Amino acid sequence: MRLLFKRDSVLPKEKGRVMSEKFEKEIFTELDIALQNVQTLKKSLQVLQGSLTTVEIRIQNILKSVVSASGVVDSSIQVYSSVNDLKISPRAWNILKSREISTVGELIKLSKADLLKMPNCGRASVREIEIVLISHGFKLRGE
Fold first, then answer.
1. Which fold has domain 83-135?
2. Phi-psi group of 71: left, alpha or beta (phi > 0 → left; psi -120 to 50 → alpha; rest → beta)
């Protein structure tokens, strides 16, 4: 937060208390405004987060229906294939590597909740893994 006054500013002695009270009132007014702005931003972020979650779910459903309808599934990846063969980001790959998940078969035994419990694995990584699995005709447990 920005400082509202300079540390070495000095109020004139002759106006003393009146200026001090006025200065204090201005500071509290500024702080109240800043607090209201922070609260408004927080509410806006919560609304945005809810909207993004809805959009993510819609995108996943559309992707699932497109893959199902088109029948376009990369069959070169099998249950016994290495997760190295999946086209996932280094972050997602490192998450799986840290948990010693080396095959697609081991990966599809996990649920979304299992993945989210892994260190450094957030919703974006889970989404990425789900999309790659769907494109190869697989899905996570419980989906």
1. DNA polymerase; domain 1 (1.10.150)
2. left
